[in-house]
Structure formats: C-alpha cells, structure tokens
Design goal:
The chain has helices at residues 8-13, 18-21, 24-41, 50-73, 82-105, 117-196, 202-220, 227-244, 268-281, 321-333; strands at 225-226, 249-255, 263-264, 288-297, 300-307, 339-344, 350-357. By secondary structure, the chain is an alpha+beta fold. Helix 4 (50-73) packs across helix 6 (117-196), helix 5 (82-105) crosses helix 6 and helix 6 runs antiparallel to helix 10.
Length: 361
C-alpha cells in the first residue's frame, strides 16, 4: 500500500521546496510571533528603538523558519528522526540570525559592542529564541503530523473509492455482456420458429431483424442511454415481433415527455418487454397485449410493463435470469436506489414495475 506522502495525488497537492519552507501560514505565524517578541523586548528601558528591536526579532524568526524548512526536506535519507535534525537546526539558526541582525544594523565589531544597547537587546532575544523557538518547532511538527495523517486518510479514501468504482464498472460490463447474447439468442429463436414453420414472412422478418440489430447492438456498448432511445428500440422490437405473430400481439407505448431525456442503462425497457413477450405472450394460445408506461413522480422515474399473458408460472418464484441481471445493473447504475418488482394481475398477466432516480442525460 502506498503511504500518504508517496501517494500520487497527495504528492501532487503538497507544496515542495521554497513553497513549503515559506508557506503563507508558516510565514504569517513566524512574522506574528517575531513582531510580538520584538515589541515586548522594546519595553525594556535600555532596549534600542522599537522598530530596530522588531527588525532584529523578525530576522531571527525568519532564519529559524528557513532552517526548519530546509531540514524538513534535506537530506532525503536520514539515520535519525527528522524532527531531531529540525530542532537542532532551529537552535543553531537562532544565534546565527541574531548575529546576522546585528551585523546588518551595526557596522561595528561585535566583540567590542557588548555594552551597546542593541547588542544587549540581541543577547536577550537570542536567549529567548533558544528557550522558545525549539518548542515552537515541535508544535509545528505536531501540526504537520496531523496534516500528514489527514493526507494519508484522504489518500486511502481516494484509493478505496477508485477501486470500488473500477469494481462496479467491471461488474456492469460483465452484466451488460450477459444481456447481449441473452437478447440476441431469444430474438433469433423467434426467427428460427418462422423458418421451421415454413412461414412466407420469415424472410421479411429476418430482414427487419438485421436492420433492427444494426441500430440496437451499438447502443448496447454505451454506459448509459436515454429513455427516449429505449422507447424507440422497444417500438422497433415489438413491431418486429408483431410481424411474427400479427394476430396474437398488440401493444401500446406511453412515455411522459419529461422522462424522455432521463438516463438508464441500455436494454432497460427492452429487457422488461422481452420478458413479457417470452414468458407471457408467447406461451399463451390466445396471445395478448403489452402496455409500456413511463412517467415521472417526485423526482423518480417509474416504468410499468403490463402483459396479459399466462402470468407467473409459480407464484412467488422470483425473477428470471434476464430480470435478475437487470435488477443488478440498475442497482449498480443508481447506487442501490432502484427497485424492480413483479406482480401477478387478474384475470391473467403480470405487471413489472421499475423505479429509479430521475437523472437527466
């Protein structure tokens, strides 16, 4: 497992180099504390002017911050904990910063200026820095540890979400691949029945089937489609089946205009209609009727396919292969917020009802 500091997205978001050493939060904290200490030290009667004292404190603070940031990233490989090096670096940077401030503000020899007010002020500042700066560095490192822990949690969450998404996408593709042969084999079986019966309509039905499949098969590869496209496929399919059994099949399609552009997985309506035809209308000697209704209610899309076929062979037997696959595809596509139910109706027939969130394309 990749650590948070090595995770690509975390590494991409984390500042590096000068941007890390002089981050605006770190810089504002350093300036604020330095000005506060400089102003406090200027209250001493023998201290130099307040602006000079503050300038000295800011110089020492920035030097310590630079050392903290430098040893935060360099060297890349260490045999001791990095925080130890950072604390030592800050402790060394405090007197270095004090000497730097004194050399800038005083053009005299440091060794001969021990009685000078500015030198005494710098000595006080150096002692304060050595006492306080390491603790400030430790507090900063503790805050960094919390930030790194959050980065690590975020990285793991990103990895988990990405892995779950890939699993769901793979599962959806597998289910969609199962739908294709299931639909094609059932449709070709209908054409074979006409050929075996010697029907003169077999050639015309086969030609229409080829035309239909050329339009339908490419849509099976899409991740999502619209209900308007689904209704057109269902219409073409039912017209094709009506050519096979003109005296035994009637149908009607009704779709709410507001639901036309809503998203759904490919073959959603077609699976429901095919199930009604194969298990309801075909086994019935009298044939029957299929009614397809699609409408909107309370930000949900409702689909109902009713047939007047033979009904459920065994009440409570559950869904067949096609409908079980459809239910799982809908659950994956809508994050579990989809329902599919079968109900036997009287005097005969079955009602298949599907409900899922209304998501415009």
């Amino acid at each position: 497992m990749v650590s948070a500091l090595e995770h690509p997205r975390v590494m991409q978001d984390r500042p590096r180099g000068v941007a890390l050493a002089f981050g605006w939060r770190r810089l504002s904290l350093t300036l604020g504390l330095s000005i506060l200490f400089g102003a406090a030290n200027s209250l001493v009667s023998s201290a130099p002017p307040v602006l000079v004292t503050i300038a000295h404190a800011v110089t020492v603070g920035l030097t310590a911050m630079l050392a903290f940031g430098l040893f935060e990233q360099w060297p890349a490989q260490l045999r001791l904990p990095r925080w130890v090096l950072q604390v030592i670096g800050v402790m060394i940077a405090v007197p270095v910063g004090a000497l730097l401030a004194h050399s800038v503000s005083m053009a005299v020899d440091i060794h001969s200026a021990h009685d000078d007010p500015q030198m005494r002020g710098l000595m006080v500042l150096m002692v304060e820095g050595l006492l306080i700066a390491p603790w400030v560095a430790v507090a900063a490192m503790l805050q960094q540890r919390d930030i790194f822990a959050r980065d690590q949690a975020l990285a793991f969450e990103l990895e988990r979400s990405e892995f779950e998404r890939k699993v769901l996408d793979t599962r959806m593709r597998l289910l969609q691949a199962q739908v294709k042969p299931h639909f094609l084999f059932n449709t070709l079986a209908n054409v074979q029945a006409l050929v075996d019966a010697g029907s003169p309509r077999a050639s015309q039905v086969l030609a229409n089937l080829i035309t239909y499949l050329r339009a339908a098969v490419p849509r099976m590869h899409a991740a999502m489609t619209t209900l308007a496209e689904e209704v057109e496929l269902v219409r073409a399919y039912l017209e094709l089946m009506q050519m096979r059994m003109p005296d035994r099949l009637q149908f009607a399609l009704r779709i709410d205009p507001g639901a036309s552009k809503l998203q759904c997985p490919p073959m959603t309506l077609l699976t429901l209609v095919e199930n009604s035809l194969q298990h309801g209308i075909d086994p019935s000697e009298e044939g029957g009727r299929i009614d397809v209704d699609v409408w909107l209610r309370d930000d949900r899309c409702l689909v109902r396919v009713i047939d007047t076929g033979v009904g459920l062979k065994t009440p409570g037997s559950g869904l067949g292969t096609g409908l079980s696959t459809l239910r799982e595809r809908m659950q994956l596509a809508f994050g579990g917020d989809a329902q599919l139910n079968l109900t036997e109706i009287q005097p005969r027939g079955v009602s298949a009802e599907l409900s899922f969130p209304a998501r415009p394309a």
